[in-house]
Specification:
Shape: elongated
Structural class: mainly beta
Number of helices: 3
Radius of gyration: 20 Å
Order of helices and strands: EEEEEEEHEEEEHHEEEEEE
Helix content: under 10%
Strand content: 15-25%
Largest sheet: 6 strands, mixed, barrel
Strand order of the largest sheet: 3-7-4-6-5-8
């Protein structure tokens, strides 16, 4: 096994499982520059580059396992400072030292989901890490590292972090509310590192962005604005992820509050009612910041993302409640700021409420 860089490539989001129609992963030599969309770069000595192909099937590729008590070279912390043990469904794309140069599979965007299958067992995993790569595995290009807990879920034997073998890899498409949120599908359904404000954006800035931003009204100035119909308009200069969050909020604004509602549904499906955490998670999904399968309680959001307020998005969470500010406009499930704060239901609220007793967090880059 070639160890993933110490502190190499994790951002803090978690997930398990989405429905799958696969996208072919094909081995081919690319003419594009390393790290660019559609281009292929070397994944390491003796391994050929892999890029995403048309919908249909998957491909068998070389894989290695990393982490765990027997592998002391990999560490447990990704590049953003989040802990891999808290995200057992993680994989690393190999080939480079940044999210943009780890291009063994075409330079997949952060949090790209893949269905990984080994000996008839299958699970969805998410790109939260990167690694240098290495020589072929069983004659196939070595393109992916499986975090040891992910490998264990597939019943891959733990061999002190030295296991290597062949796995089948396939890309799931965008589903459910993707069309309503203006998201694309297939190979274009990725979120570029530049859009999320990740370090070293370089060529990723030119990659397709799958975000819920179609049809979102915009206004001048740095703040979102509450409109007469209860929807929100995004600042014209807001990042795509922020426009996606606002689009997702406009989808469900005004729906009734029901404790525990929507947690049994994937985030890409609309529910008749929501509670605080499920509504916030739907918005984060719309911004491309959570996978469809995420469904944690408000307490889990106390450790999500990065600590403190963000420039564009700030989440306030405690074990009992969660609300958020998006470009200065509050998303909440009730009119906690009192008179003039609008409807008591789920939606956008114009006033600032007391944040005492809440933990402030923000998405990476926002």
């Amino acid at each position: 096994m070639i160890a993933v860089l110490a502190g190499g490539g994790l951002l803090s989001v978690t997930a398990v499982g989405i429905g799958v129609i696969t996208v072919l992963v094909v081995a081919m030599m690319g003419s594009g520059a390393p790290g660019q969309c559609g281009g292929a770069a070397s994944a390491g000595p003796g391994s050929g580059p892999i890029v995403l192909g048309p919908p249909g099937t998957g491909a068998v590729v070389g894989a290695t396992e990393y982490g765990g008590p027997g592998d002391r070279t990999s560490g447990t912390v990704g590049a953003s400072g989040a802990g891999l043990p808290a995200h057992p469904d993680s994989y690393a794309e190999l080939g480079g030292t940044t999210f943009q140069t780890a291009t063994a599979m075409g330079g997949l965007a952060y949090m790209t989901p893949l269905r990984i299958t080994w000996q008839g067992r299958s699970t969805i995993a998410y790109k939260r890490d990167i690694g240098l790569g290495g020589g072929p595995v069983d004659g196939r290009p070595r393109v992916i590292d499986l975090w040891w807990q992910l490998a264990g879920a597939l019943r891959i034997p733990y061999e002190q972090g030295l296991w290597s073998g062949a796995v089948r890899v396939a890309r799931p498409p965008g589903t459910g509310s993707a069309a309503a949120l203006g998201q694309t599908t297939g190979a274009a359904a990725t979120l570029s590192g530049a859009a999320l404000g990740l370090p070293n954006p370089t060529a990723a800035a030119a990659c397709p962005v799958a975000l819920g931003q179609a049809g979102v009204p915009t206004v001048t100035g740095p703040r979102a604005r509450l409109l007469a119909d209860g929807s929100a308009a995004a600042p014209g200069g807001a990042p795509p992820a922020v426009r996606g969050i606002i689009a997702a909020g406009n989808q469900i604004a005004g729906r009734p509050y029901l404790y525990g509602a929507a947690h049994a549904l994937p985030l890409d499906q609309l529910a008749p009612a929501y509670d605080c955490s499920s509504s916030v998670e739907h918005l984060l999904y719309g911004g491309g910041l959570l996978p469809a399968s995420y469904g944690a309680a408000s307490s889990a959001l106390e450790t999500w993302g990065q600590p403190g307020p963000g420039r564009w998005v700030t989440i306030y969470a405690n074990p009992d409640h969660v609300f958020m500010y998006v470009a200065g406009l509050r998303w909440d499930t009730w009119n906690a700021a009192g008179s003039g704060d609008g409807s008591a239901g789920i939606g956008w609220h114009p006033l600032v409420r007391d944040a005492g007793g809440f933990v402030a967090r923000h998405p990476v880059g926002l």
